[in-house]
Amino acid sequence: GAVVSQHPSWVICKSGTSVKIECRSLDFQATTMFWYRQFPKQSLMLMATSNEGSKATYEQGVEKDKFLINHASLTLSTLTVTSAHPEDSSFYICSARPRLAGFQETQYFGPGTRLLVL
Amino acid sequence: GQNIDQPTEMTATEGAIVQINCTYQTSGFNGLFWYQQHAGEAPTFLSYNVLDGLEEKGRFSSFLSRSKGYSYLLLKELQMKDSASYLCAVRGGGYKLSFGAGTTVTVRA
């Protein structure tokens, strides 16, 4: 149980285009999903917290107009990188917290999406 | 703010024991997690500590001292497949996790 999927797993795009990444909780409902970015040999940096039915909460320094987050249902959150540039190339990982999670329950991570902007 | 420190790299031989330390200074504390991450993959959950003491799970154990802002992950009977990055993460308010930079463990035959 507690499986999170991401699509696509790999994407290569041209500079200036937009890319949408989907994060789905396959066997549980998640009121809260998190989006992280990880550069090579660095740790995960939280970009934003996505709450079902409401606006995402962005971390300091993350441009909300560039990284659009939509959490339209209890099993799906999307991250759209608008007008992507080479510096946006990174490994994007989502995680989901089950709706009925106990206090000790962790977030469950998706397999990640590797974005390369040419 | 959150400040989480852990060593960058550690090397050990197969069958040995390795201890990865993590110190933290955070605003708010609702538990500490350890994750394993293989290159190019997402992190997988290893352990959770919210009270002081040792939690043991097979070959992996994790310890927490809240008063010292300190935790360690102990890996016993190392296997080649344990070569990975180990991430220490602190949960603050709102269930957000703040991650350390990760410790790359290399297991040699």
Distance between the termini of chain B: 41 Å
Q: What is the overall number of helices of chain A? A: 0
Principal-axis shape of chain B: globular
Oligomer description: heterodimer
Question: Please, how many helices of chain B?
Answer: 0
The radius of gyration over CA of chain B amounts to: 13 Å
Strand coverage percent of chain A: over 45%
User: What is the overall pLDDT average of chain A?
Assistant: 91
CA radius of gyration of chain A is 14 Å
Order of helices and strands of chain B: EEEEEEEEEEE
Structure, described:
The complex is a heterodimer of chains A (118) and B (109). Chain A has strands at residues 4-7, 10-13, 19-25, 30-38, 45-51, 57-58, 67-73, 76-81, 90-98, 108-109, 113-117. Chain A has 118 residues and is mainly β. In chain A, the strands form two sheets. In chain A, strands 2, 4, 5, 6, 9, 10 and 11 form a seven-stranded mixed sheet that branches. In chain A, strands 1-3-8-7 form a four-stranded antiparallel sheet, with no helix packed on it. Chain A is globular. Chain B is mostly beta strands. Chain B has no helices and eleven strands. The A-B interface holds A 32, 34, 42-46, 49, 91, 93, 97, 103-104, 106-112, 114 and B 30-31, 33, 40-45, 48, 50, 87, 94-102.
Which key phrases capture this entry?
A: 118 residues, mainly beta, 7-stranded mixed beta sheet, 4-stranded antiparallel beta sheet, globular, B: 109 residues, 6-stranded mixed beta sheet, 5-stranded antiparallel beta sheet
Write the layout of secondary structure elements.
The complex is a heterodimer of chains A (118) and B (109).
Chain A: E1 4-7, E2 10-13, E3 19-25, E4 30-38, E5 45-51, E6 57-58, E7 67-73, E8 76-81, E9 90-98, E10 108-109, E11 113-117
Parallel strand pairs in A: 2-11
Antiparallel strand pairs in A: 1-3, 3-8, 4-5, 4-9, 5-6, 7-8, 9-10, 9-11
Chain B: E1 2-5, E2 9-13, E3 18-26, E4 32-37, E5 44-49, E6 53-57, E7 60-65, E8 70-75, E9 84-91, E10 97-99, E11 103-108
Parallel strand pairs in B: 2-11
Antiparallel strand pairs in B: 1-3, 3-8, 4-5, 4-9, 6-7, 7-8, 9-10, 9-11
